[in-house]
Design brief:
With about 260 residues, the protein is of the alpha/beta class. It contains 9 helices and 8 strands. Helix content is about 35%, strand content about 20%. The chain has an 8-stranded mixed sheet, sandwiched between helices.
């Protein structure tokens, strides 16, 4: 959860980074995703007239019974109430996309648009269960590299962060709890009722949430657009940040957000 060029704001039990003024874009990070995953998004959109806010989701800080997709959506609502924001665009990667969708289900009027990339919610691979050799650094390095089309994106810093997470007993238990919650909160039956304009950006070589998942999201969401990024895995905003930002910006302009 490192942020180099912006200070972390800590207020009223919330931690977040914020940049720019204008229409708010709230970014929701994934289970193994730190704030640094969105560095280029944070630099780009404030220059285009948007306010970008990334709250740190309390994935490992809540009691087990509150470590659920629904509880994180409610946490996001508390954060937006605190910030006095009621008309936002949600951009979520992986688990963050799932939380965005669940938020749109229960707080629909607050969401003017959704941007999903590598989102969970329909297909859950074994997030936490996929680390049986968690004490083996090279194994964790390989698993982290598999998230990307270009394995060089998995820097030592990123691998170290994942290694630390899966070897921390509390974090591992919470990771497994979130994985089970994600399976319980499958969104297939809810998506036809989520009519918010939605942009789906997907890596063609995503092995975590495969391309078939993106197609299913697109078929079930009534107001969606699907765009592919080639030579790209599970985190387009990290592997192809310029293309990702351009596609999102063009969609926002088209929708007049």
């Amino acid at each position: 959860m490192k942020m180099n060029h912006l200070n972390l704001i800590e207020e009223n039990s919330f931690k977040y980074v914020q940049s720019g003024e204008g229409q708010p874009i709230i970014i929701l990070h994934g289970l193994m995703g730190g704030l640094s995953n969105f560095d280029k998004v944070l630099l780009f959109f404030p220059q285009k007239g948007y306010k970008v806010i990334i709250p740190i989701l309390p994935l490992y800080d809540k009691p087990i019974l509150e470590t659920t997709v629904k509880a994180f959506a409610e946490y996001l609502n508390d954060f937006l109430l605190y910030k006095k924001l009621d008309s936002v665009i949600l951009l979520g990667n992986s688990l963050g996309g799932h939380i965005a969708l669940f938020f749109a289900k229960i707080f629909k009027p607050k969401v003017i648009g959704l941007i999903l990339t590598g989102s969970s919610g329909l297909y859950e691979n074994s997030m936490g269960d996929g680390y049986p050799k968690r004490g083996n650094y090279n194994y964790i390095k390989t698993k982290t590299e598999e998230v990307f089309f270009n394995s060089k994106i998995a820097t030592k810093e990123l691998v170290d962060e994942v290694f630390e997470t899966v070897n921390d007993r509390n974090k591992l238990i919470k990771t497994l709890t979130i994985a089970k919650s994600a399976i319980r909160h499958n969104m297939a039956n809810d998506l036809p009722n989520i009519k918010n304009p939605t942009l789906i950006i997907w890596g063609k070589q995503d092995s975590v949430t495969p391309p078939s998942v993106a197609k299913e999201f697109d078929s079930l969401l009534p107001n969606s657009s699907l765009i592919w990024i080639n030579n790209c895995g599970h985190a387009p905003m990290m592997e192809h940040p310029d293309e990702f930002n351009t596609l999102v910006f063009e969609w926002l302009q088209k929708k007049r957000f």
